[in-house]
Amino acid sequence: MAQIELSAIRKSFDGTDVLKGIDFHIADGEFISLVGPSGCGKSTLLRIIAGLEPQNSGEVHIDGRQVDGIRPSARNLAMVFQSYALYPHLSTFDNIAVPLRMRRLSAIERLPLLGALLPSRRAKERHIRADIEGIAEQLDITPLLRRKPGQLSGGQRQRVAVGRAMVREPLAFLFDEPLSNLDAKLRVHMRAELAELHSRLKATFVYVTHDQAEAMTMSSRIAVMMGGELIQAGTPAEIYNEPGDIRVAEFIGSPKINILPGRIRKDGGVDVLGTTLKLTCNAAAGDCRIGVRPERIELGTGPFSGTVVHLENLGAEAFVHLAVEGTGSRLIARLADVRHLPAMASPLAFGFASETVRMFDPAGKRIELRVEQAERVREPAHV
Amino acid sequence: MSNAHPVPFRAILRHVLLITGAALMLAPFIWMISTASKPQTEIFSSELHLIPHRFALMENLREAFAKANLLRFLLNGVIVTVSIFVLQVMVALPAAYALAKLRFLGRETLFALVLFGILIPPQATAIPVFLLLHKIGLLDSYAALVLPFTISVFGIFLMRQFFKTVPDDLVDAARMDGISEFGIVWRVMLPAAIPAVTAFGIFSVVAHWNDYFWPLIVLNSEHLRTPPLAVAHFRNNEAGTSYGPLMAAAMVIIAPLVIAFLFAQRRFIEGITLTGIK
Fold first, then answer.
1. Residue A80 predicted with pLDDT over 70
2. Which of A180, B19, B183, B201 has its CA 20 to 30 A from that of B189?
3. Gap from A25 CA to chain B (nearest CA, Å)
């Protein structure tokens, strides 16, 4: 079990900066998700932690020990890859045995024919077998031990890859988009399994994904990366409710947060779509952007009006796409009660409570808001 | 009915063309078998017939084995081709791995040189290599037959192309598991590349088993002769060439390749198409 400390990590490929100075601390036993759109540098960061890629500058400390320039295997981390990366010519058993054999057997004992005759090897092999059988038991892959990766389904390969990572009892587990090759149903299932595994092993997990749902459901903390920078880290609830940057707000949450153009008046009031919100801020007058989550939009009442342009009924919930009157803006509202769907092309009034509003300046940075007293009757705002 | 099984004209034409081509390719081969089965008198008779009147294959074979130490020459062929192939693999795999999976300065230049090397015919370098072997005193030995071919640029190229298709994740996983770079070549890449190694093996063994030019240049001693040289020595200027035993010997020396092909037919085709589909 280990903590991982990253300081001022920089990396560039062919003159392009992929990582622009990452500082991050991962505590012992945490499940950290590195999340961001493709090309944001999250996989590169993971590979730098693993030692598969050298950084241009900056330091990586694992459990207080500086590991820069140390071989991947000597860092004692285990990695699960997107393509699982099982050795195609080896059985499940032998795949899981590789890290143990590499570590426990000497070079002579590893020799193909001669090594098998050595008595010391036989004793070690017995231990290895016992370890692997224990892991297989835990992961429910005992019947698969003699099969080759080609004969396994995606989910089974995934489990074998996790087994190969677990068997060496590493300081930390690194996952590089391990679920993205699975179908949607299996992905949801494996999500639960991985989260369970984490709570059982209590090891440090660093999990790279571009799927915000995976990050939200499994992690104890999420680190959102964009364009080579780590822009926000926090618990899933913090990231979802209090995004510090409009890119974070837009990336986390499905469907996407609704962004509406707004204007800050000289007196600190905010106008959106011709209506003045019951909020004030200290920011300078000028343009701003207003974000409201789909589930926070109340349909039927409110100062705004729009036209229904599209309906998505998912059974348990529905999403109503509205074209806002008088502007080009579109927004999506979540409807919990699917029995009363509005008709297509019908006009609809809508509104949202002031405390659900998140405001961003033109550069995308969060602007703190004060909700006017009159609005604070029902619930305290967590702004 | 005609709708259910139409025989399109194009298909017929295609097969006629293919059969004609195949017949042309097979003709010398069949003529060899035919000649090997005829007694001397029939070979020199003025009429052309494919099926011998008197079947003399066994006699010709017996004479061929009696006149020359064919088994020894076959053994020479095996020693030489197997040594060449093993050494080629030992050189080509690490080189191909470096060219395909490692990042280092000048990699593209090196690969361009490899491609350039494919363009150079072995005859062009024959004389310098011959002189080199003469200087180090290796002429007329197994080493002279094997050493010049240990570095196969074609092999490096073929393996590099195949290694490119092996996912990087697999290499990274091996590094995480603690396998060294050379270990990755032999424990991860080689097993993954067995089809490509087989394909290369077929090219290599066929080429060097049948090679006539190089053994002819570097060999003097009879006991080192490779199979094609041995057959050629059945030509006898003084006593006249005895074609029956010559053809029988030719049959014997190509037999190993034909038998190997029949056994590994599927692998063979897989191997040839490999570079095309991957």
1. yes
2. A180
3. 22
- Is B178 in Cβ contact with A52 (below 8 Å)? no
Contact A79 B176 (CB under 8 A): yes
pLDDT score of A377 more than 70: no
Q: Which residue has the higher pLDDT, B178 or A1?
A: B178
B176 to chain A: which residues are within 8 Å by CB? 50, 52, 72-73, 77-79, 99
State how far residue A94 is from chain B, nearest Cα, in angstroms.
Answer: 12
Q: What is the 3-state secondary structure (H, E, C) of chain A?
A: CCCEEEEEEEEEECCEEEEEEEEEEECCCCEEEEECCCCCCHHHHHHHHHCCCCCCEEEEEECCEECCCCCHHHHCEEEECCCCCCCCCCCHHHHHHHHHHHHHCCCCCCCCCHHHHCHHHHHHHHHHHHHHHHHHHHHCCHHHCCCCHHHCCHHHHHHHHHHHHHCCCCCEEEEECCCCCCCHHHHHHHHHHHHHHHHHHCCEEEEEECCHHHHHHHCCEEEEEECCEEEEEECHHHHHHCCCEHHHHHHCCCCCCEEEEEEECCCCEEEECCEEEEEECCCCCEEEEEEECHHHEEEEEEEEEEEEEEEEECCCCEEEEEEECCCCCEEEEEECCCCCCCCCCCEEEEEECHHHCEEECCCCEEECCEECHHHCCCCCCCC
Summarize pLDDT for A319-341 with one digit per residue, the tens: 999 998 777 788 999 998 888 88
What local confidence, expressed as pLDDT, does residue B1 receive?
Answer: 46
Q: Which CATH class is domain A258-375?
A: mainly beta
Q: Which residue of B has its CA nearest to A86?
A: B170
The lowest-confidence range among A108-117, A254-263, A270-279, B67-76 is A108-117
Q: pLDDT of B149-180, one tens digit each?
A: 999 999 999 999 999 989 999 999 999 999 99
Residues B110 and B222 in one domain: yes
Interchain pair B177, A164: CB under 8 A: yes
User: Is A47 near chain B, with CB under 8 Å?
Assistant: yes
How many domains does the structure of chain B reveal? 2
B73 and B52 share a domain? no
Range of the domain at B19: 9-56
Q: Is any Cβ of chain B less than 8 angstroms from the Cβ of A163?
A: no
